[in-house]
Amino acid sequence: MRTQYLTELPPHWRPVAEIFAALGDETRQKILLLFEPGDELSIKDIAAQFPLGRTTIVHHLSVLEKAGVLAVRREGRLALYTLCHAPVLDALEKLRLLIADDLAAAPKQTAPARKTETKEEQAAHAEARVPATEPETVADRSSFLAAYLR
Questions:
Q1: What is the pLDDT of residue 139?
Q2: Were 16 and a residue from 48, 85, 91, 106 both cysteine, which residue would form a disulfide, CB within 3.0 to 4.6 Å?
Q3: Confidence of residue 1 (pLDDT cuts 50, 70, 90)
Q4: Where are the beta strands (DSSP E) in 50-148?
Q5: Taking the mean position of all CA atoms in its chain, how far away is CA 1?
Q6: Are the C-beta atoms of 16 and 91 separated by less than 8 Å?
Q7: pTM for the complete prediction?
Q8: Average pLDDT value for residue range 74-86
Q9: Is 78 exposed, middle or buried (0-12, 13-18, 19+ CB in 10 A)?
């Protein structure tokens, strides 16, 4: 058991924790799913998609910006947001390395026997998970992501 981190996270892990905390809110996930590759969206663009007040949207954008998930560019009074992939990928890589280290250090365990699926069952599961077309709305993208991650 790693008890040394009970009182404080190590400095190298704080950015990872901030990103995962920012991504832990469903509204913030929906905001991120609004962005097409290369999009710059204003607060107005984003707020128009939600039944939430502008102040609430600004709070969510601030959390995402502070975590490094979004970058903001200002043109006068207009704030334009873009996705920042590198910090998220870095956090995922740090988590992957932690898991890989744990798996390498763990004693070998035998997995319980699994039922082997027939080719028909495999095809049915794959078809149920991946939609035939690209999702077009935030709700569709959320469903697409949830299905893909199953």
A1: 55
A2: 91
A3: confident
A4: 70-75, 78-83
A5: 28
A6: yes
A7: 0.68
A8: 96
A9: exposed
CA atoms within 13 A on the CB side of 131: 12
Yes or no: say if 87 and 97 are a contact pair by the CB < 8 Å rule: no
**Residue 30 φ/ψ, nearest 5 degrees:** -65, -40
Q: Which residues sit opposite 80 in a β-bridge? A: 42, 73
User: Length of the chain in residues, anyone?
Assistant: 150
Helices (H), 24-84: 26-34, 43-47, 54-67
Distance CA 11, CA 14 (A): 5
Dihedral sign of CA atoms 26, 52, 60, 74 in order: positive
| Torsion on CA atoms 47, 88, 15, 82, rounded to nearest 10 | -40
Q: What is d(CA 122, CA 118) in angstroms, rounded to the nearest whole number? A: 6
Q: For residues 104 and 49, give the distance between their C-alpha atoms in angstroms, rounded to a whole number.
A: 45
How far is the C-alpha of 70 from the C-alpha of 88, rounded, in Å?
A: 10
User: First and final CA of the chain: distance in angstroms?
Assistant: 29
